[in-house]
Amino acid sequence: MMCAMEQKETLLEFPCDFPIKAMGKATSGFEARALEIVRRHAADFKDENMRIVASGKGNYLSATFVVRATSKTQLDALYRELTACEDLLMVL
Predict the structure, then answer these.
(1) Paired residues of 66 in beta bridges
(2) Distances from the Cα of 81 to the Cαs of 9, 56, 68, 76, 88, in angstroms?
(3) What is the pLDDT along the chain (92 residues), one digit of tens a residue?
(4) What is the topology classification, in CATH, of domain 14-91?
(5) Residue 89 in 3-state DSSP?
(6) Residue 87: its pLDDT value, please?
(7) Which residues cross the membrane (predicted)?
(8) Strands 50-54, 16-25: parallel, antiparallel or unpaired by DSSP?
């Protein structure tokens, strides 16, 4: 019988396309910094798999990156680095 942790780690089948959303203040470095981190963990990332949307008043940006995930370890490392970045306020 699988324990709960083992079941949780098998919910995704790798490789798979995985969307990651990052939000932050609309600064000149937001997009470049987030993209730099994504490319460090997903070297084959293509710009057409990124969507940037400004908030209603233009104070914040939301960036969605669809990465080709190869493992849970890869996604965990990407999330850790994105959440550690001071330019990003939230990562989903």
Answers:
(1) 19
(2) 20, 27, 17, 9, 10
(3) 444 544 466 588 999 999 999 999 998 889 999 999 999 999 999 999 999 999 999 999 999 999 999 999 999 999 999 999 988 999 99
(4) Alpha-Beta Plaits (3.30.70)
(5) strand
(6) 87
(7) none
(8) unpaired
pLDDT at 9: 64
Where along the chain do its domains lie? 14-91
Alpha-carbon torsion (13, 19, 24, 26), positive or negative:
positive
Rounded Cα distance, 15 and 32, in Å:
26
Q: For residue 76, give the 3-state DSSP assignment.
A: helix
Angle between helices 30-41 and 72-84 (to 10 degrees): 160
